[in-house]
């Protein structure tokens, strides 16, 4: 069955960096668009970034553009989120999720989710 396992979260100071990973199994990773979604304490889900199946098309929310970058390694069945210049408002649980097709997609259409990894930005 589909498995998505996030890792790489933790506590970081403002201005710091982290790289999140999402290890995928149970499906043909290279055939599906993938997405990062986050949920801050007490808030709803926020779409962060998306990648097409081959990684040739990516998109990012305005709130993270220029600081967070999605990428993928289809040979390793792994999705990444490079997080630079982190701000306290980036504090959230970060989820990777599978889109239903090869393109990026929105939150309501996401098929499978990982369990999430906590990112806390604080001094």
Q: Can you put this structure into words, describing what you see?
A:
By secondary structure, the protein is mostly beta strands. Helices cover 0% and strands 47% of the residues. The chain contains no helices and eleven strands. It has strands spanning 3-7, 10-12, 18-25, 34-39, 45-51, 58-60, 68-73, 78-83, 92-98, 112-113, 117-121. Strands 2, 4, 5, 6, 9, 10 and 11 form a seven-stranded mixed β-sheet that branches. Strands 1-3-8-7 form a four-stranded antiparallel β-sheet, with no helix packed on it. Strand 5 (45-51) and strand 6 form a beta hairpin. It starts with a strand and ends with a strand. The model has no long low-confidence stretch (mean pLDDT 97).
Keywords summarizing the entry:
single chain, 123 residues, seven-stranded mixed sheet, four-stranded antiparallel sheet, 0% helix, globular
Task: Please summarize what this structure is.
By secondary structure, this protein is an all-beta fold. It has strands spanning 3-7, 10-12, 18-25, 34-39, 45-51, 58-60, 68-73, 78-83, 92-98, 112-113, 117-121.
